[in-house]
Design a protein that fits this description.
two-stranded antiparallel ribbon, mainly alpha, two-stranded antiparallel sheet, about 5% strand, 7 helices, about 240 residues, about 60% helix
Length: about 240
């Protein structure tokens, strides 16, 4: 299993690393340029479609590993947990946000439109079964089960929108948001392993970590590109 996961990490890294220069060219061509402002350290206009490379690297890696592990029968895509249905919702959510974010990076969208796009994508993901239905309380070894479906939906959608915007708000320095995201990915890999979480969680977080590592050489100071609103992909509001 860990051999396949290592290959997945390398595949995401290679894909993001190779594709990022093309996203820089695309950004310059379509006018997706981040102009200098008080919140940012760049003194010159900066291409900002790097998130496309991260998304492609992530998807290639995750899809590869899911197929391989399904063939090896170490992961059941159509089992009782119905991961195929949940992953479909996850993919649809990515597509919806990617469209909103690409338009925002190129043309610019009103804040309310960006927020609506976030909520639509989050609702899709939650409606397909990926949701928060229990909360583990640290150090107390207690689990709080949420039985109210309305609270589950509101909490899950709010968590998705809130966390992704939190990453947006720290995207003001070269490599800051991508670096913190990478630290979070490695931390979650450790947590998932210790808690014996479903293998799909490890698959997705490893793929994301590899894609971020592949993008970071172009994003660390002095940055050649910004990840843009397609980073999570989440639009800035």
């Amino acid at each position: 299993m860990w051999g396949d996961i290592s290959i997945s990490f390398l595949l995401a890294f290679a894909a993001a690393f190779v594709i990022t220069p093309y996203t820089i060219r695309l950004a310059k061509k379509v006018g997706a340029i981040d102009l200098p402002e008080k919140r940012r350290v760049n003194e010159e206009p900066m291409p900002r479609l790097g998130g496309i490379a991260v998304i492609i690297g992530f998807l290639l890696s995750a899809i590869y590993l899911i197929i391989i592990m399904s063939l090896e029968k170490t992961f059941n895509l159509f089992g009782s947990e119905n991961y195929s249905y949940k992953l479909l919702g996850y993919l649809l959510g990515i597509i919806v946000l990617s469209v909103f974010c690409y338009i925002d990076d190129v043309k610019g969208l009103p804040a309310i439109v960006k927020l609506i796009g976030q909520i639509i994508a989050a609702v899709i993901v939650v409606s397909f079964g990926t949701r928060i239905d229990n909360i583990e309380i640290p150090f107390l070894e207690q689990t709080l089960n949420i039985n109210n479906s309305v609270i589950v939906y509101v909490l899950s959608v709010g968590w998705i929108v809130g966390i992704t915007n939190a990453i947006n708000l720290i995207d003001g320095l070269d490599g800051l948001s991508s670096g913190i995201t990478l630290i979070s990915c490695f931390s979650l890999i450790i947590v998932f392993t210790m808690n014996q979480s479903p293998i799909i969680a490890t698959i997705l977080i490893t793929a994301l970590a590899g894609a971020i590592v592949g993008f970071m050489p172009y994003n660390v100071n002095p940055a050649k590109t910004f990840i843009g609103d397609t980073r999570s992909p989440i639009p800035r509001i």
